[in-house]
Model the fold of this input.
Amino acid sequence: MADTLVKATGIEVVYGARRRFGRSTAGGNKVLHGIDIHIDRHETVGIVGESGSGKSTLGRALLGLTKVTKGSINFDGVDITRLTESRIIPLRRRMQMIFQDPMSSLNPRHSIRRILTEPLLFHGVATDKGDAERRVRRFFDRIALPSSCLDRAPHELSGGQRQRIGIARAALLEPDFVLADEIVSGLDASTQAQTLNLLKGLTREMGLAMAFISHDLSVIRSVCDRVYVMRYGSIVEHGRCDDIFTSPRDLYTQLLIDAIPLPRIDPGWLNRGRIDDATAVAATI
Amino acid sequence: MTNSILSISDLSARSELDHRLILRGVSIGVAPGETMGLVGESGAGKSTIAKALLGILPRTVRITSGRIVFDGRDLRNLPERELNQIFGDQIALIPQDPLTALNPGRRIEGQLTDGLRLRRNLPWRQARLRALELLDEVQIRDPERVMRAFPHELSGGMRQRILIAAAFALEPKLIIADEPTTALDVTVQKQVLRLMRHLQASHHTAIVFVTHDIGVVAQICDRVTLLFEGRVVESGTTAEILAAPKQPYTKALIAAGPRYDRPETGLQPVPDSVINMLRADIIASDGRSSNG
Amino acid sequence: MDEAVSLAPPTKAVQSHSPRWRRQLKVLMSEPKVAGAGGFILLLALVALLAPLISPHDPLDQDLMLSALPPAGFDGAERGHLLGTDNLGRDVLSRLIFGTRITLIVAVVAAGLAALIGTTLGLLAGWYRGLVDGSISRLVEIWMSFPPVLLSILLVAVIGSGVTSVIAAIAIIDWTRFCRVIRAETMAQAQQDYVLAARAVGYPRLYILLREILPNIMPVLLALVSLEMGIAVIVEGILSFVGLSVSSDTPTWGGMIAEGRQYIHQTWWVLAAPLAALFATVLCFNQLGEGLRRALDPVLRR
Done:
């Protein structure tokens, strides 16, 4: 499929395994069990799951930031799982990430200017400092950020502004693929709406492919074309958003959808549906 | 409202650091056994109110006027000794983060029996038995094992149930639930909400439920108070507020959340015009109250 | 507490006219410990630099006619000897002033050297982990199991006494302190999202260590260096007290304390002056370190 940008097959990730002469042996925690996932150009794919589902790990694996113990990840035809760190570097420009917490994902000791212009110069997207600054300012206009932000340090900005800087950092490199990891999870409904609208506009204009990780199915529905539902390191269901929501096949997906409280009076909601008690006592001794 | 368990009248508070008004003449009434939702975006003042009701306002925040009447007693005019008897006893807290609210170095049995032993003077064995009953009430399947466990050995949902059990342990008349499900998975949230409703009914406790999630409010609150920058924008029964919101801000806030059942509506942030109107209103009334 | 939705300018507006370093300096000076303690230390440095110019007498000048004079304000004090003289007639104040030189040289160079060695190894261990960390950590453990006093005496016995060996002794023993702390800090910073973000941009590993992580470790490092300088001052004092430091001609505070101890009943001021100076200096280094830590941590300060 010439349209597929990111294709992951049989991904397994194990944390903390003891390595014996290069071959991983027992011990360790298997976080992903044989994941198959693909993202086509220009499409937005959602990855939804609760805590412990492995969605964040999957996202980082797709970007080659987490080592996979089995399986392969293909980015535009290149198998990035077999590449050394230095061979991956030129590809990195084309796959970027936006983080959940803009406070911790921006270096507290760097100015915004430095955070945004350095990557442009590093990858040669900008020819010199002046060009880099011009690009940044132009982008600021697009996302309604005042250029006075450039001289500031991250902690001197508001939360909403930091979130936009995070988006800017990813978008300025003009990537083909962006991973958005729970980027609206801590936000108010209104800020969330603003940020998501901004993101949707950008992906449309720039023709980006996006993997959108979230625990909130409602947000996923409003942003994504297709969705993968994850649980305990496996994909339990996937398909077009419309299909999943109108007729979910997997029991867990149904549980997940049903658990969302809607802002309308529904007296039966609270007591409806089976409660999977196993979920609740999952992580006990 | 003579029948209310809690009656906040015209409460105003100011920050000592930058003299900003944090609360502007807030009035809220809660009837016994009912769940009152306290909704608003960040900075609305809802956690300030919660802290004031628990007596844990930071020293940098000062209440400048208004009354807090709990069970017929004016909390701002009570001697410290009587206040200590109310906070943490007749008014209890279900905190937001189950991870940090429990002491990681103590077993659950110690933490759960603290209140019973210190406030009700129950001997250890009796307190422990009562704690086991409470764990059963919050539907924990293996209460003995949980009692002997340390917090890090349990899941988030489990910890939140324990905190709920602890809140109900002293049979409080009022519980302040400060975003108790925000940190939980959505499926766990539903179980916890169901549990809280159930316990509230059997113990006839009133709950002030602080949240920014209107969906949660719709499912669990009897009445709602909507706040914006320290001011009550609108209040009423949940049904009224959802079906026929009067204020434009209320309408906008309800519409701002994404709805999986209405994908066509899209994402609508609260329009700047609505915010500006509210702010102008606030500035005007601030001016009036400082002149009057 | 989060700020509300807003495209409005930040609430804490900082003038963007002045360059960042000047703003940072302003912030530093606003912390009283930095300004106060730092000022004192600067003064000491000046004293050390200008010692020959400001010293009232030659510190080595003996005048048995003027021996054992008490400091000003006491019975029998003489003009020209503010802090009195010792049993050989040498001016205490002058010796104190010249002693500052040794003290500060040792403090700065020894602390700097220990910091350099320890920080380098700590950064490498904390960032590259694996075998690198394993070997460095083992090295630190073994190194720390040697008794420090014994080691320093051994060293001086081998190299011979003098400023160089004092500095070497301090640096060789204390680098482990830096290594452990910096290693821990590096590992903590490496967990942060901004490091992951830097990797996502594609920066090479060494680049990330030096350009992204190191600046965030600076506050801890500077505070540690300041503390270490205080320690170096004390160690120098101890070593010269036992006669293992510079030759007995060159005045050092530790040496003065050793001499003063012998004649404490006759000339207590010979002991009191360097003791007070030592105390004040170490106190200032500690306070400076504490103040730097607080002033330089951007997140903590909010």
